[in-house]
Recover the amino acids of this structure.
């Protein structure tokens, strides 16, 4: 497996968390494309991740008869300002920081993260998605397409975020095969990085 940068925002291995903001903070990817799948919000992702989402959604349909949809994909720095500030004003800063990244610290800004749901909308962006057929199929199969369930239930102290059974991060099949084989479930642990429960 050839190593890639975990610091360069253009690298598909870039690690972004509460301890590791994007550099530059207002980074935007140069190769965003429309993702031609069912969706609520119009999804944009970097080309390689978009192609992988299409392959994964096709496989869910062909192998298991499941229809998936994208609920959120690329979000710009400015969009994240709105999302984060909205959560702070609705729920307070502590709740917002447990559930929504600050601008510059969101994986969605990399163009490599996607929030996936059932096309039916059942349990959309809710923890109960983990128990649905769609959520279980993704948990078992996403690695085959280069996607990692980024915020596992038992790793809140490592990732800094509550369990999100819908949030998948594209890192490429080489890395997810390695993660699958070793049983390591977070990028922080795999790369030996500081755990990121809080902002500095
Ligand atoms: Zn997400």
């Amino acid at each position: 497996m050839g190593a890639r940068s975990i610091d360069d925002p253009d690298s598909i291995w870039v690690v972004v968390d509460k301890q590791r903001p994007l550099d530059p903070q207002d980074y935007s990817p140069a190769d965003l494309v429309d993702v031609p799948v069912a969706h609520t919000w119009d999804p944009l992702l970097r080309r390689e991740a978009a192609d992988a989402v299409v392959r994964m959604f096709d496989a869910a349909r062909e192998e298991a008869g499941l229809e998936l949809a994208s609920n959120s994909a690329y979000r710009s720095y400015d969009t994240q300002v709105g999302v984060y500030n909205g959560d702070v004003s609705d729920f307070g800063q502590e709740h917002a920081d447990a559930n929504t990244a600050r601008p510059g610290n969101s994986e969605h800004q990399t163009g490599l993260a996607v929030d996936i749901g059932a096309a039916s909308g059942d349990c959309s962006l809710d923890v109960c998605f983990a128990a649905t057929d769609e959520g279980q199929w993704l948990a078992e199969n996403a690695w085959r397409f280069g996607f990692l369930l980024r915020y596992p239930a038992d790793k809140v102290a490592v990732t800094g975020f509550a369990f999100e059974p819908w949030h998948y991060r594209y890192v490429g099949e080489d890395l997810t095969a390695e993660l699958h084989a070793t049983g390591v479930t977070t990028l922080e642990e795999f790369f030996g990085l500081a755990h990121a429960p809080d902002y500095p």
